[in-house]
Amino acid sequence: MTAVAAGWPGTAQVRRSYAALVEHYTAMTIDYGRFPGLRQELAAFLAGLAPGPVLDLGCGAGRDAGLAAATGRTVVLADVTPELLRATTARLAVGGALCCDALALPLRSDAFAWVIASGVLLHLPRQYTVTALDNIRRVLIPGGRALVSMKHGGRDGWRTTDDFPAPRWFTYYEPEEFATLCRKVGLGVAQLDISTRKDWFTATTERPLP
After folding, report:
1. Is-above-0.70 flag for pTM?
2. Model confidence at 176, in pLDDT bands (50, 70, 90)?
């Protein structure tokens, strides 16, 4: 695993929070039972994909990576928390793993046909979102697609919950507001979907062909 320093100071706290709750977080998110509709959303995304490697950015416990790998695609895991990444790679056979920040991806350009970014960019303040989206665009091949899930309808800031008592930063976007940022970095927005899961939405984005 390759470690890369965080680009936002608050990432260190987010990393510590996940590191402190690796087993708890894994038990909560390792399957789709707590996330109605999520498996169907990802399966629909994967069903439309041509062959090519997949990057699971902010892979967490590897739930989505496992579903992607089951389709026969090569999957690379990326997460900012080394403790979580080690636990995930011990369970999943994947094409590689990187401990890195979404703001500084140590990956060559045009490397992936598909990117999954499920609930990861929402842990960055607004002023950093464009940089992360531009990194996603850069590592996609022309014509490649990314599925990005975010939250809407809340107040930005540090937050704890009964399910996850350690502090994490959350940034909330209205779907069209987020789509505008995607277009700003050169990602086309093929689809915006409001999820059946409370305050989630997904943006299916594409790096245009030359």
Report:
1. yes
2. very high
